[in-house]
Amino acid sequence: MIKLEFPKGFLWGSATSAHQVEGGNFNDWTEWERKNAERLAKESKNKFTSPDFIRFPEMSKTENYISGKACDHYNRFREDFDIAKQLGHNAHRFSIEWSRIEPEEGKFDEKEIEHYRKVISALREREIEPFVTLWHWTVPTWFRDKGGWLCKDAPKYFERYVKKITTSCSNVDFWITLNEPDDIYAFDAYFAHRFPPQHKSALETWKVLKNLVKAHKNAYKIIHKNNPQAKVGFANNTICFESKGSIAKIIKIFANRFWNFWFLKRTLMFNDFIGCNYYYRNILKGFKYNQNENKAVTDTDTEIHAKGIYYVLRGLKKYNKPIYIMENGLADAKDEKREKFIKEHLFYVHKAIQEGVDVCGYFYWSLLDNFEWDKGFWPRFGLVEVDYGDMERKIRSSAFEYAKICKTNILEI
Ligand code: BGC
Fold it and tell me: Which atom of ligand 1 is nearest to the CA of 237?
């Protein structure tokens, strides 16, 4: 057993996003869910074909794919933050739902703004530092109707919302403008035909990316004008690419450029910190991708590869900015792998810190089981189990193990 101490003032917590936990939303996703739930339920039979994959009965049910009440976190946030406090978290990442704040174009809902002020106060009362995400994929339906992120004026619309919310919640010091804007959102929504609006166009993807870059830069400026102390960044999805063979070695260079560094490089001067989301690696062999060993996998059939976080962090070191792990986690309904997952990833985070990477915080994804986008409710990512019938919360045993680390700042492994 070794004891690894993290730097003084290290932030420990977990993350959520509005649409995945709040319930009662009305946005582009809620409409898309209604139209696509039946299809997703049917298609689930042909997804996840690996022999070891254990199917969940909910996968074939239409209601699994409708976010509906989600975790009712909108009404239960205090209770949920009590749990975070009990678990020793001193920071928490959550997102503000744009469609609540601006349900109609240019009309802001003061009641909803007040709601988020209460959310922020509830965290502060518990001495939990709020990390606030401004956009985690969902948009108001009026924005979608104008063409969403494809629309020429999209950055302007976003700017107006950012101005309103950041002046209304001026006591926040950490802002995350956009969640995984490039390789997940723009790619999945405009190229891979997976997320709404399910387009399939390289040109459109490019336009969306450009708008998102602009939106981030403008948001950065607005936030700093309001609150010069504020720290602003975005959540960058990172993948640990490994290559086998010379062709794959070349492909890896491009893969890294697009998947890990594209957005960051374009917005570098407009980031006070780097938000790093890490979930998995991708082994490239010849022209093939995802040739992973899969010795250990999550419930969503992704390989568990803790050392990948170390390589990713080393790759980010050159940018010389503080780094926060804004998401790292797994779906594990039985809670058999979560403790080991967290500890091993933290082992490698610590190793990176020892080698000079300035990692300042770690947010497990997620505090609660929640609505996992086009997969719906069956993947269980939570430190806390949610019973979607009566909304009862049950703290998983891995959460108590993580709590020991949060409370002592020491990882024993
Ligand atoms: C997203 C989350 C999602 C998680 C797990 C991340 O890419 O930001 O919203 O739930 O992955 O799949």
Answer: 7
